[in-house]
Specification:
The chain is 31% helix and 26% strand. By secondary structure, the chain is of the alpha/beta class. The protein has one domain: D-Amino Acid Oxidase, Chain A, domain 2, CATH 3.30.9.10. Strands 3, 4, 5, 6, 9, 10, 11, 12 and 13 form a 9-stranded mixed beta sheet that branches. Strand 14 and strand 15 form a beta hairpin. Helix 1 packs parallel to helix 6, helix 3 packs across helix 9 and helix 3 packs across helix 10. The chain is globular. It binds glycine. Glycine binds next to loops. The site of glycine (GLY) has 7 residues, from loops.
Length: 363
Amino acid sequence: MTSLGVVNSHAKLSVVGGGVIGLSVAWRAARLGWQVTVHDPAPGRGASWVAGGMLTPLSEGWPGEDRLLDLGLASLKLWPAFAQMLDPSIVSARGALTVALDAADVADLLRIAQWLQSRGQHIDVLDRAGVRTVEPVVSRAVRLGLYSPDELSVDNRALVAALQSAALAAGVEFRSETVTDLDALDADQVVLAAGVNSHQLCPQLPVRAVKGEILRLRSRAGSLPGPATTIRARVHGRPVYLVPRGDGLVVGATQYESADTQVTVAGVRDLISDAEAVFPAIGDFELYETSAGLRPMTPDNMPLIGRVDDRVIAATGHGRGGILLTPITVEGVLAALTDREPESSAAAALQTADPSRCAGVTT
Ligand code: GLY
């Protein structure tokens, strides 16, 4: 690496991709003195715009995905300070409840609770009455729940807006363009935060698109109140989540190995029917938006955060967890840019996201 490890107020940094990851890196690097340009034809309008905004590593944890759990927990710890620096009002809900509707779901949730315990984590196991005390709006068919009171969700679109303002205020330049060649950028250092386009720009990084459809609903005069906590469930084997958002709800998400962003009739039908199994009063809400986004997935479901070579740093492959993993990604990228170790609370988790695990990355 060049002398760029030392913060240099004249060093040029190009951030390719203006989603929440790219915008956050750009904002924080500009505050450190870098001369930053974000390259994106439509900043903040990709997966970040479609996202649910859940910060729920425990509730989304799955036995076997231990490294992702640790990374998510380390990032959740950084979120309150990150939100505080930006705009604390972007936090839109507290608490997450995962519910079981049949015997197989009950067995799965108990297995997840045990796995979390074996990882030194705790999640409350609630019986039917306990679930309805935490969230009275859920269906009477719910048999058991896992409750995590300290998990959060954020309004992803308010987050995008706050990051765009913060980046502009810090002096970041925005170029409305699609980058096709990293070598052609007039920059000393490059951060690749291009989501599903990352593989095209850097073939060593195995990032593929996994499509997700999502619905936005709001209450109407006379609707029953929606949930106050984020609710997750598996219905007919399909995952569904309901995230409170102002006077409404975000309901997601389908999952397909596909790279188009068309919203399908079947996707909308399944999401509504699965959400209704959990929250029966949903039919009274207004469905005002359907959308689809592309998750940048990797073969091991872990993101790619760190140096690819002397000039390029990866900040991509965040799969289902881009919003949750934003603060820890910023920490990893700034550490790589300034040639220092990441904060100790984040260092071990970031090590597991290092792109050196990909064939062809030689740092
Ligand atoms: N983070 C939720 C999803 O990808 O659907």
